[in-house]
Amino acid sequence: MKKVVKIIFCISFIFYLLALVMLLFIGVMFVGVRGHIWTDLSLIEYIRTSSNFVPFKTISTYIMAMFDGSLNLGIPIKNLIGNLIMFLPMEIYLPYYIKKINKVGRFTFSMIILLFVIEVTQLVTRRGSFDIDDFILNMVGALIGFGIWKTKIVQRLFK
C-alpha cells in the first residue's frame, strides 16, 4: 500500500508542477488600461508599473473591496485564497524529495529563495508582476503546508 501511495504522490507532484507553471507563467497576460500589452513598455517602465513593493498594500485593498463592494467579491477572494493555497502543496513535496529541508528554518529559507526567484522571473519575463503581497501569501501558505507535512498522519503515510 505504501508503494501505491508513493507512486500516486509522485504523479500528483508532476501535475502540481504543471499547474504551477500554467498559473504562474503561461496563463498570465497583462493588458493595460487602453488595451496596450504591458510588454510594449521598457523593462524599467514595466517594473515600475506592474510591481508592488509595499507590504499588505494589495491585501488591504482586496480586503477593503470585499467590505465596501467596490470589486466583484470573486476577484479578491480568488487572489487572496489562491495565493495562500498555491504553494501549500509544495511544502509537502519539498521536504519529501529533499530530506535536508525537513527543518522549519531550512524550509523557510528555501521557500524564500524559491518564491523570490519566481517573482523576479515573472517580472523579467513579463509574465506577471512582482508583488510582495503575493510573496507574503505564498509564504504563509507554504508554512501551513509545512505544518501539515509535519503531522503524524502524513509522516506515517510516507515511512
Automatic annotation (TrEMBL):
Domain VanZ-like: 13-150
Top-level division of the source organism's lineage: Bacteria
A Pfam cross-reference name: VanZ
Keyword line: Membrane, Transmembrane, Transmembrane helix
Membrane-crossing segments per the record: 7-33, 80-97, 104-123, 135-153
PANTHER family the record matches: INTEGRAL MEMBRANE PROTEIN, MEMBRANE PROTEIN-RELATED
Name by which UniProt lists this protein: VanZ-like domain-containing protein
Source organism of the structure: Caldibacillus thermoamylovorans
